[in-house]
Amino acid sequence: MGAMVLCTLRLSAASEQAAAGTMKSAELVDAEHRADNWRMAFFVMTGLYIFVYIMGRRRLMRKIWARNKALRAALDKAHESDRLKTAFIQNMSHEIRTPLNAINGFTQLLCNPGFELSKEERQDMVNRITKSCDNITSIVGELLDMSEGESQHDRMTVAVNALCSEMLDDLKAANEKGLDLQFSTALPDDFTVETNEPNLRRIVRRVLDNAMKFTEKGSITLSCETIGPQLVVSVADTGIGIEPGNRERIFENFTKLDDYVQGVGLGLPLSRRLARMLGGDVTYDNTYAGGSRFLISLPIKG
Fold it and tell me: Which of 42-46, 89-93, 239-243 has the lowest mean pLDDT?
C-alpha cells in the first residue's frame, strides 16, 4: 500500500514538472515570436525609409535636371540675343555707312568747281545720291515699322486687285534689272477684304522687295486667289531660291543669307509678324520650283 502511494506521488510530481516545462516552452516561443515581429517591423520600416529616401532623391534630382535645362536654355537664348545684337549693329553700320559715304563723296564732287563734269556724269551722280538716300530711308522705315506696325489694328475695306496692281506699278519704277513684272488674279475687281490696309501694304511691299533683291533675270509674278475663308497673295520669282535648311531661318530677325545684298534682314520677319497680327501668316512654298514663292494668307473677314 505504501509503495502505491509513493508511486502516485512520484507520478504527480513528474506531471507538474512536465506542465511547468511546457509553460516555459510556450513563453519562450511567444518571446521568440515577439522578437521576430520586431525584427520584421524594423526591416519593413527600414525598407520604407530607404524607399521614401530614394523616391525623394529622384524627385529632387528631376527638379535639379529640369532647372539646369531651363538655365541652359536661358543661357543659350542670352547668347543668341547677344549674337543677334552684334549682327544687328554690324549690319546697321555697314548698310547705313555705305550709302552715306556715297552721298558724301558724290556731293563733294558736284559741289567742287574744280571738277568739270558732263551733263551725263552729273545726272549719274545725282541718281546715285538719290538711290543712296532711298536705301537709308528704307532701312529706317523697316526699323520704324517694327514698333509702329504693332499699334495699327484698325480694319477697313480693301479692294485687293487695285491695291496689288498699284504696288506692282510702284515696283516697276525700281526695276533696274529689266525683270518681267506680272500680275495674275482669280478675283473679281470688286472683291474686298476687311483688314488693316497700311499693314497689308507693308507686308506685300517687303515680300516684293525681297523678290527683287534676289532675282537677277526672269520674272516676278504677284498673284491673288481665295482658298476657303482665306485670301492668298503669292509672290513668285525666278531667282536663286532658298535651301530647305534656311527656309525658316529667313523669318528670324537680322538673318541674311547673302551679306552682299542690301538690307538688314528685317523685311521677311516683319512681314510675318504683321500678317500674324492680322490673323494670317507669311510662309515659304516648299512645292515651288524654279526660284522662290512666298504665300501671304489673310482672313477675308477681319
Answer: 89-93
Residues above pLDDT 70, as percent of the chain: 80
How far, in Å, CA of 273 to CA of 203, rounded? 9
Rg (CA), the chain: 43
Q: Is the pTM of this model over 0.70?
A: no
pLDDT at 52 over 50: yes
Tell me the per-residue pLDDT of 89-127, one tens digit each, with 9 for 90 and over. Answer: 766 676 677 788 888 888 888 888 877 888 888 888 888
Find where cell 505504501 sits: 2
